[in-house]
Amino acid sequence: xxPNQTYLKGKSVFIVSLIVVVVTALTVYFSGIHYxxxxxxNFYMSLGIIAATLFLFLSYGLYKGIDLKDDFPKLxxxxxxxxxxxxxxxxxxxxxxxxxxxxxxxxxxLIWLLVSVLLILLLILLETVVWFSIVLILAxxxxxxxxxxxxxxxxxxxxxxxxxxxxxxxxxYTILYVGWLFGIVYLATxxx
Length: 192
Hints:
Blueprint: E1 7-9, H1 10-35, H2 39-64, E2 67-69, H3 84-87, H4 102-153, H5 156-159, H6 163-190
Parallel strand pairs: 1-2
Helix pairs in contact: 1-2, 2-6
């Protein structure tokens, strides 16, 4: 009788992966300060460590036949009913002159105050849009990451308890998932 299939939670794997990437990049960067390495060398080192970690994780998961369970909350119901441009219609902004005297100075101070409050409100709106964008980008990254790792672990049926085949699949997917980043950095330094 075969034991129950081992499942990893997708949300946990994604969070651990983000932590590994950030810690690796920071470690390589801070260790590179003392050795005066270029940013390209630091990037290659970070990518190498991340690729090795990904390879080990995929090899182990394929060898054990691990599968991923999607436990990330569904992001439904987030849609813009009206575009932002329709909500913030600004007419023709005409210039006006205030003239001279105490009344005109008070008018210009009042206008300055109103414009400052309007700019603060627009900054608050911008902050909300930026945070929503960050959450949306993280959700997209999670989805891509989850689908990619789930695709790899779908081969676990073929590679379970087959060490050589697990290594071959893990190596090919690691090259596929990380190799293009090495290529981009190489081309960027080539055409510099």
